Amino acid sequence: MSNIAITIVLMLAYFVLNTVIIKLLGRKQTSLEEFGVGERSFGWLLNSFSYIGGWYTGTIYTGWFSNASTIGVFAQYVIIYSVSSLFLMFFMAKPVWVLGKVYNLETQGDLIELRYGSRKFKFVFAFLTFLFWSPWLILEIKSIGYVVQAATYGSIGFNIGLIVVSSFVIGYCFLGGARASAVGGLVQGITFTIVGIIAVYWLIVKVYGGLGDMYDMVEGFNKDLLTLGALGGKYWFSVVITCTLGGYILPGVFATIYRADSSRAVKKSVLVAPIAGVLIGFTILSLGLGLSFFPDFPADPQSSAFWISNKFGGPIMLGLMGILALAACMSTISAVINTSSVLISKDIVGTLAPKFTREKLFKYARLLTIVVGIISIIIATMNIPNLMFISVVMYDCTVQAFPAVFVGLFWKRANIQGIALGFAVGCVFSLMGNFFPETIAWGAGWSGGIIGLFFNIIIVVICGFAFKPYHKVQEIFETIKTYKEVYSKRII
Questions:
Q1: What pLDDT digit, counting tens, does each position of 11-68 carry?
Q2: In this predicted model, what pLDDT tens digit does every residue of 283-326 receive, in sequence order?
Q3: Which domain holds residue 289?
Q4: Is residue 197 part of a domain?
Q5: CA geometry: angle at 225 spanning 440 and 140, to 5°?
Q6: Domain at 107, CATH number
Q7: Which residues contact 141 (CB under 8 A, 6 or more apart)?
Q8: How many domains does the chain have?
Q9: Position 474 in a domain
Q10: What separation, in Å, do the N-terminal and C-terminal C-alpha atoms of the chain show?
């Protein structure tokens, strides 16, 4: 059997495995609640791995791996912000889950409307958070193209690979909704955590002799890779903060909390996911850290994870690396597409057409799975430079929604005037800092996102004392305080 045939057979076998398990554990979709939040029935194990699968992206095997090889430890900010965001989830697990259960919330926008009493702001908030989140979907679909092309020795083209694999994911999301996405995330999350950590550490030993030897080698040939580089510590810290707080309020985080059968299941998920996250991120980025030392390091660093796998492990390891990267891509794509289709249907279409029944919104959500998927595939086939930069810019804007969510959950005086104005001002500073950096030169090295967040919070606090909060705020906080949960022992 040729090398190409070996890698293709391995990946096809993995698709069969996914199909069988998703089919066995799936359910027929009959309502918007089932399609969007799985009837709030997920146990802690399913919730943990579906969250891990949706959160840890396939770009860690392409874009971030490339960054680790070229700019060094700066790229490891992804590990810190991923874990930090998860710990923030621990604190908001109970209020968000309880409000979701009592008030039948299914999207982040539902929570915003409940807390501030404004459908207009819900529409704007939902539209902008979706816009800020959407680059990740494009990044993941593009990553599939890189993965399939690299893992098959170039025998399957970039566009063909991304179209076929993405269509597979879109298909099971359309048919199985949130549960299919979560079950796929369970299979895929176990794959790139347990199998991935073992496989990547094996490669580290084969390539360098071990982690200690790798760091000694990097220090010898390019010690700049072990520093934060020309961008500086303040910028790095700014990126960590904005990504931590911005990642915490992505729409998919709220969908994950709503899907759990209790807030305790969410908290258990938060205890499992950070451990897996640190091990995944650290091992894969450590493998990439010293690769530019090799004279045959590829001209396109985004393929370097597959190049080194083939160099030291042949087609078997190359096929396995392809499976790991595809697992991470697929789980993220399914989470984003499922959440986005429900968000658009309920928060955007439903707000514009308030007379639509839930049955009609359910049909729109299913249809939007296909629409969002096809549009994303079309965009992903285009030549769009600097997508990683765009994702950082979007996090700078996304973090401006942090006060609306976090402050709103824990401070009764937060009101629509402060939240709306603070969000707008924060986004302006974020965009200025990224596209016109000279306008915030007075910021002493801090990013536009951090400067915007500072003024955002100041505005929220001032308006909190200047204006009255929404009249149902006391009821909302009492609901959280007095709700008595019934904890199940469900695992899946």
A1: 999 999 999 999 999 989 999 999 999 999 999 888 888 777 777 788 889 888 888 8
A2: 998 999 989 889 999 988 888 999 999 999 999 999 999 999 99
A3: 3-384
A4: yes
A5: 70
A6: 1.20.1730.10
A7: 162, 166, 329, 333, 376, 377, 380
A8: 1
A9: no
A10: 39
